[in-house]
């Protein structure tokens, strides 16, 4: 007996795989949620003590939240006068301390000039002149002469085109002042001051946040680096690396940079250094010897009374 072949024999059996993505779009809600929704439709909203308890709990929660917000707002208003008073007191103390520091600085300058006058009266003419030369060379004395002034200023603030807020302008960095001062020394400068702060062999130019400190004293823009030196100093500085770099930065970012010659420029003396220790000289130099560094003619040390030698 020959049997008939089964239907589909000779072909590969078909495999049916579940299509979860199609099922997700077709029935987006979980079956459990569907059963709960159907049960609520059949039983209706909660009635009796259950309905009243749910509404009561919601009302109590809203009342408590409103009470807490009211107490917090009242406490904030009550503490505001105290905070404002404390802030005003701190601002007043800062201004008072600044005024006191300014008075003490003026008094220190007066005492320093008095000490210098008494010292010159005790010394002979040649010894006083040599002392003024050494003070001018080390930055401890005021000097006057021809020189240049390098001015650097931050770029003006720009408004953001999207948010409308003021964007921070490109700022002058402490490294810019360092580079300018170093190239001025290389160009032949004999005395340099930044915004009236005289530079010495131990001076530092650093940053603290957005502030620039010269010998731990803050300076603000625009920054003026004043230098006394020979007549060729401006030409040599214009050819220096820092001058070329700052001119390029000024073109691209909007920073202000300029160099100008100034006649009869006066630079103040640096603050007295705080000596931590001293050692006697092994071979002290006689006072009448001609040893020592003599300043060039472009820098004139000033006597305590303000005049030249």
From TrEMBL:
The chain crosses the membrane at residues 52-73. Residues 270-309 are annotated as: Disordered. InterPro entries: DUF881 (IPR010273). The keyword Coiled coil applies. Residues 94-121 form a coiled coil. Keywords: Coiled coil, Membrane, Transmembrane, Transmembrane helix. The keyword Coiled coil applies. One of its GO terms (cellular component) is plasma membrane. Residues 282-303 have a biased composition (Polar residues). Belongs to the UPF0749 family. This is Uncharacterized conserved protein YlxW, UPF0749 family. It comes from Micromonospora echinaurantiaca.
């Amino acid at each position: 007996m020959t049997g008939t072949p089964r239907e589909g024999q000779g072909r590969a059996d078909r495999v049916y795989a579940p299509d979860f993505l199609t099922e997700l779009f077709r029935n987006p809600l979980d079956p459990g949620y569907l059963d709960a929704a159907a049960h609520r439709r059949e039983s209706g909203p909660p009635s009796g003590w259950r309905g009243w308890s749910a509404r009561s709990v919601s009302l109590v929660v809203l009342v408590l939240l409103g009470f807490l917000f009211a107490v917090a707002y009242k406490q904030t208003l009550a503490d505001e006068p105290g905070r404002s008073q404390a802030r005003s007191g701190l601002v007043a103390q800062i201004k008072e301390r600044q005024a006191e520091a300014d008075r003490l600085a003026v008094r220190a300058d007066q005492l320093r000039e008095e000490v210098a006058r008494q010292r010159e009266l005790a010394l002979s003419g040649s010894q006083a002149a040599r002392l003024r030369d050494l003070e001018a060379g080390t930055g401890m004395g005021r000097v006057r002469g021809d020189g240049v002034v390098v001015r650097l200023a931050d770029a003006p603030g720009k408004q953001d085109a999207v948010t409308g807020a003021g964007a921070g302008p490109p700022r002058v960095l402490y490294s810019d002042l360092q580079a300018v001062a170093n190239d001025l020394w290389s160009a032949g400068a004999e005395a340099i001051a930044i915004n009236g702060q005289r530079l010495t062999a131990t001076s530092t130019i650093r940053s603290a946040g957005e502030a620039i400190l010269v010998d731990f004293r803050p300076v603000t823009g625009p920054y003026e680096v004043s230098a006394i030196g020979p007549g060729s100093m401006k030409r040599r500085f214009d050819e220096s690396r820092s001058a070329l770099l700052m001119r390029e930065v000024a073109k691209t970012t909007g920073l202000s940079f300029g160099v100008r010659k100034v006649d009869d420029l006066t630079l103040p003396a640096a603050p007295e250094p705080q000596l931590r220790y001293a050692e006697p000289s092994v071979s002290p130099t006689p006072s009448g010897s001609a040893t020592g560094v003599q300043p060039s003619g472009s820098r004139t040390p000033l006597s305590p009374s303000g005049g030249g030698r």
